[in-house]
Structure to design on (367 residues):
């Protein structure tokens, strides 16, 4: 007997995470592996988070707070918003799923860039909605093109800033000009998973803008700068009515006790956030300088990763790097000759540069 799935589900691709260090060690017989594929924080999490998790060990048999009240209070205090402006999920991708479930139905439309985080389109299609993909311009969101794509069927517009995988941002002036022209009934979901890393002064404060634009919701995560990727914790910030609608489709107990305790400790340790931001800026600057020395073109990078154009298919460079124990990301539909590299520790960044320089030299010898 074969149980039939929805027609659309049968056609959907399964999300492919980056190779793990364990996979590479096993398949290539390499002991020292540097993983720069998933934009994880190379410095881990705050010491205060580890202490908070230790205190939760004795409560494994207890359900978490379904409403995440203490976590809401801690985040609301840090961001200077009301608790009813926040919704939490098992990673920001869970919030993306909830937005699609709450607002999209069959024959609706959402709009996204043609090279961005794939879960926007994936979750919209699960609801039967069509996603209009607007090509990036030089790796940046074409906001004019996205405005032109809005129709009476449009329910959600997705903007990722810094954009994954290109690393580019939408500036404050650009976002305001865009929001001024978006119909008030269209929700704009601004994915800011990497916002804490941005040092550019033109980057918008989305929380301030939400006051003026009730149809704007910002998405953030504890997976990146806070170093809590394994605990799956993300959140959305928006107008109370928008958040209420999203909350109505939230699964009960969708964040664990460990995630909530870790989130509280992480958001309160802003000294650690600042430390990671500074270290990331140093590492990013180093990678940019080295790529310039090696005559490799890079996208303007504002997160904790950088997209690098290489003189071969990205998948070929990926294989070459993996053989040397360096894991990056490649296989981008509209950037076939590019790789995305996470900004690692000083030692990891050095290892990557040494490996790619060796590969480039080997290519010249072959020629």
């Amino acid at each position: 007997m074969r149980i039939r799935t929805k027609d659309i589900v049968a056609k959907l691709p399964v999300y492919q995470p980056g190779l793990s260090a364990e996979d590479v060690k096993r398949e290539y017989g390499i002991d020292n592996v540097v993983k720069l594929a998933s934009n994880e924080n190379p410095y881990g999490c705050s010491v205060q988070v580890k202490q908070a998790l230790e205190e939760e060990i004795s409560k494994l048999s207890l359900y978490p707070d379904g409403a995440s009240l203490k976590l809401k209070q801690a985040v609301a205090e840090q961001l200077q918003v009301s608790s009813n402006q926040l919704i939490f999920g098992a990673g920001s991708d869970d919030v993306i799923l909830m937005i699609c479930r709450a607002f999209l139905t069959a024959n609706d439309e959402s709009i996204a860039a043609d090279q961005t985080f794939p879960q926007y389109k994936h979750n919209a299609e699960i609801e039967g909605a069509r996603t209009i993909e607007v090509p990036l311009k030089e790796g940046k969101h074409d906001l004019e093109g996205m405005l032109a794509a809005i129709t009476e069927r449009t329910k959600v517009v997705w903007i990722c800033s810094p954009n994954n995988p290109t690393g580019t941002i939408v500036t404050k002036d650009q976002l305001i000009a865009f929001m001024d022209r978006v119909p008030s009934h269209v929700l704009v979901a601004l994915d800011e998973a990497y916002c804490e890393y941005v040092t550019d002064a033109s980057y918008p404060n989305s929380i301030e803008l939400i006051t003026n634009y009730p149809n704007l919701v910002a998405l953030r995560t504890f997976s990146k700068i806070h170093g809590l990727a394994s605990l799956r914790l993300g959140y959305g910030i928006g107008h109370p009515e928008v958040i209420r609608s999203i909350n109505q489709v939230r699964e009960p107990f969708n964040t664990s006790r460990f995630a909530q305790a870790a989130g509280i400790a992480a958001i309160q340790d802003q000294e650690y956030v600042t430390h990671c931001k500074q270290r990331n800026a140093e590492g990013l600057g180093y990678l940019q300088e080295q790529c310039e020395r090696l005559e490799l073109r890079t996208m303007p990078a504002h997160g904790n990763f950088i997209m690098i154009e290489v003189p071969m298919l990205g998948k070929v460079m990926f294989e070459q790097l993996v053989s040397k124990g360096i894991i990056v990301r490649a296989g981008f539909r509209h950037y076939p000759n590019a790789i995305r590299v996470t900004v690692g520790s000083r030692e990891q960044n050095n290892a990557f540069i040494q490996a790619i320089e060796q590969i480039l030299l080997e290519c010249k010898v072959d020629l």
The chain has a mean pLDDT of 94. The radius of gyration is 21 Å. DSSP finds 14 helices and eleven strands in the chain. The longest helix spans residues 270-293.
